[in-house]
Design goal:
Number of helices: 3
Largest sheet: none
Shape: elongated
Order of helices and strands: HHH
Strand content: under 5%
Distance between the termini: 70 Å
Length: 112
């Protein structure tokens, strides 16, 4: 096992630290924001950036460690880019449907 150059260790450490800070911001957003729709927005952005930082750190570390380009971690970013908007849309639609059914009057003509 060959040690990494100092600049690489510092860069990987900085990316991992950035990811941790973004995860903390996500957690604070979940805790402080007032309603469901607000809570969906802030953590989605910061958590995605945190995952990007971890994946980039992984690509850099393993590419330098093995001496060739290692892009397996890129798959995580691609899956996150595909699934996160779909999940967010489904959660928002479910919450909106639930909100409408809770506030809709029961004895309105045409409703059961």
């Amino acid at each position: 096992m060959t040690p990494l150059p100092l600049w690489a260790e510092i860069l990987v450490g900085a990316l991992l630290l950035l990811s941790g800070v973004l995860a903390l911001i996500s957690a604070l957003g979940l805790h402080r924001l007032p309603n469901f729709f607000s809570r969906m927005h802030a953590p989605a952005i910061t958590a995605a950036l945190g995952v990007w930082a971890v994946a980039l750190a992984s690509i850099l570390y393993f590419s330098l460690h093995h001496g060739r380009l290692e892009l397996q971690s890129w798959l995580i970013i691609l899956l996150l880019a595909v699934t996160a908007p779909v999940t967010t849309t489904l959660l928002a639609r479910a919450a909106l449907f639930r909100k409408r059914t809770e506030t809709e009057p029961k004895d309105r003509p045409g409703t059961m």
